[in-house]
């Protein structure tokens, strides 16, 4: 997928599919199955390194996994996460984003809104494509008091919507919305010209992302928004089923979504 296709998909009402991958074998399967985006997520802290959260993921980790995934990603758009504390100033953001792009990423993603205005702007000025990440921000799990649904109250919902609009104005190409009520996911998606990609944000986002291992049922005690697509058959058929379910909007259902207060 080319970056320009993101808006075309949104305008045509075609849902965008995204899976995380961290190694060449899974990335190659997902790419060949035709997933639109492969995300080298900092969730590798949990699923590869066995940590409780993503805070211990380093730039070196992200560079290594981006390089191996990039080798086999031919048709999907490759996005890489900027890890914890790798975008604390505009200068540092630009430097680290350039490293990820040189490692093979076609876009970088980082968490947060208005507090990172200078980082969003320096990447826009330097033509580095950015994916935002609002709602539950796993790198702020301590400040957020755990992995909790965000934007349930009106004030919080308005704050997330305002951040989403600011990110669009700062040239962000797409925004991941994590763990917010489905109603808010729909409202934000309808308020923007750029596509949203939801994870626990309801079926009305413009696309859906899952951690690849969650989609394959490997994760113990998965969150509510996860569906195991590998109930029978192969990894290839599970991946195809995920893609089809997102495209025809049979995933996520209410069972995988959250309500406002
Ligand atoms: O790191 C990751 O896997 C992510 C997804 C949850 C979107 O950011």
Order of helices and strands: HEHEHHEHEHEHEHEEHH
Which assembly state applies to the chains in this document?
A: single chain
Q: For this structure, what is the CATH class? A: Alpha Beta
Query: First CA to last CA: what distance?
Result: 37 Å
Q: Major sheet: order of its strands?
A: 1-2-3-4-5-6-7-8
Strand content: 5-15%
Total beta-strand segments = 8
Assigned CATH superfamily: Phosphoenolpyruvate-binding domains
**Coarse structural class:** alpha/beta
Bound molecules: 3-methyl-2-oxobutanoic acid
CATH architecture: Alpha-Beta Barrel
CA gyration radius, whole angstroms: 17 Å
Secondary-structure topology with pairs:
Elements: H1 5-12, E1 16-20, H2 24-33, E2 37-40, H3 44-47, H4 59-72, E3 77-81, H5 90-102, E4 107-109, H6 117-125, E5 130-135, H7 154-169, E6 174-178, H8 182-191, E7 196-199, E8 207-210, H9 212-215, H10 235-247
Parallel strand pairs: 1-2, 1-8, 2-3, 3-4, 4-5, 5-6, 6-7, 7-8
Helix pairs in contact: 2-4, 5-6, 7-8
The structure holds 3-methyl-2-oxobutanoic acid.
